[in-house]
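Hi everyone,

Forwarding the result from last night's run.
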Amino acid sequence: MSMSPSRLTPALMGHAPQLMWLQDAFARGRLPHGLLLEGPKGIGKATFAYHVARGLLAHTGGPLSFEMESSNPLFMRVGAGAEGNLFVMERKIDRDGKMPRDLSIETSRALKTFFSKTSLEGGWRVGIIDSVDELTPQAAQALLKVLEEPPEKCLILLIHHGTGHLLATLKSRCQTLLFSPLSKDETRRVLTQQNLSLSQSAAQDLGLILGGSPGLLGAFASLFDASFYDDFQKLSRDVAEKGRADVTLFLDTHFPTKSDDLAKKFDLFSVFLPAWLRFWLVASYEKTRDFSQRSESHLMAVRPAPEWTHIWQGLISHFQDAKRLSFDTRHGLILALERVFNGA
């Protein structure tokens, strides 16, 4: 199983106010048992969570510090998923080689078991839920019971992207920390550190479409090859030139059915496609200087804006239903792309 880059990232870009708040709460003995990290996906909430976890697990007295070298044994244990005082709830590839769509009640029960045990050194125990958007209703209820009866010296960090329903009672048991997208300069520095394989034009387009989320851009670069965005743009060009796009060829190339990363690709694409459509719909309203020169402008001209708005809203519901009802991934992708490019 590949490890999340967030747990392997030694430097946190941005989010200084949130760190300062947490350090102050810790110094005053007012650190809550549950922290809801709320904000757009891919802006560093998980990286923040691992920084906090390492800081607490390493604390032996004095002010709380989040600085740690990647050569530190604790950093390496966390990075390897081998730290006994840290429990991470995240989707993992099952025995059949498939990625589950959600976090089941079994994961919440495992978290409860983890917190029922005492830390070997008498220090902190930390749980990270990545993310609460993926909890089943039963898993959310079980997690609520953990938050209602928290043991001493424990912290649960709940990552919330805002893409899924969150129980009001679950939120009420946590202190919410709001996270904003990184600045353009911070985003540029993160992308430089990641050394992405995307072309400059693709990175620029995707950065605008995905709201300056280096996490999502990094995911694109790791899951898809450099030709992905060019091939996706070709779908718009084909509609303009031929009246129809070959979505099957696009899927065969970039979403092979036997790919180990198919579920991750589907999740990422379910964020990208509605964001892409919304971006170009807004651009068609604003008539930016170079919009008419883009192939996307020809696609936007195929239908009136109200119809595109309806399609955009339908895409969001479609992908939510696909995850909730465990649609066949291939079928879900075909329906979405045919609706956008071929009006099916």
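Residues 224-342 form one domain.

Cheers,
N.
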